[in-house]
Amino acid sequence: MRDGLVVVDKPAGFTSHDVVAKLRKTYAQRRVGHAGTLDPDATGVLLVGLGRATRLLRYLSETGKAYRGRVVFGIATTTLDAAGEILDQRPMPLTRDEVERALPRFIGDIEQLPPMVSAVKIGGRRLHELARAGQEVERVLRPARVDRFEIEAFAPGPYPEATVVVECGSGTYIRTLAADLGTALGGCAHLGELRRLRVGSFTLDESRPLVDIEAAPDDAVLSLTTAMRDLERVDVDAEQERAITHGVAFACGALAVQGPGPYAVVGADGALLAVYEASGAALKPAVVVAAGA
User: Fold this and answer.
1) What is the pLDDT of residue 58?
2) Which of 43, 108, 173, 290 has the fewest CB neighbours in a 10 Å radius?
3) What is the pTM of this model?
């Protein structure tokens, strides 16, 4: 069984689960999972964990992300993106300056209403499951964080289109951002297309199309240590490594760290042993992936 991270350039038309299913076949193993769902029509960076890396995926899901999207003004859809049916259509001959003046209100800590096609659970069922059954339920606003929201290109007209770049925290809905922007400008809008550029420090430059991964599976696997490269790293000696293998907790001072973590704990050979998090004055193992643990 392979253990590691695969950075996939997800194609359009594939769900994130489709990618996982394909890589299960490619690597001939069941223990495969993904961090941070991408919508079927969206493309770009999807992080997929193999083997023991599946236990680390939450640390990847919680990192910041970057997207390039195309916002179409004047047309609202049932799904807030191009896959849905048209709900409303009315010309919005906006200028680029008008759109840019509206962007700052969406930067910082904001609140969003999860779209009905999202994976949020209400009453034990995911919203997209309810949506497929033709049901719409009441939802509550959820906090989100947007650090950058800028126009990269603009096409004027009765239904203008803005290519935008968004840098945001985990759990931010770009389709909701597009629709809310249209509302703020006195009309409506939907997300015409979306490409994820980055998850944490993993960018499109490191991603591989599925066809390339299938052609050379081993070449696409990054180590567990690399998978956790965005965490603060702590290197330990052989004695500490033996203790970590058995899930021993440490005083924070013993590993010379400050703050809550999480920390990627690495052995003398450079292999990831565990992820530790602070609890009071102690560092405790959150996930132990050392061989033999």
Assistant:
1) 94
2) 108
3) 0.90
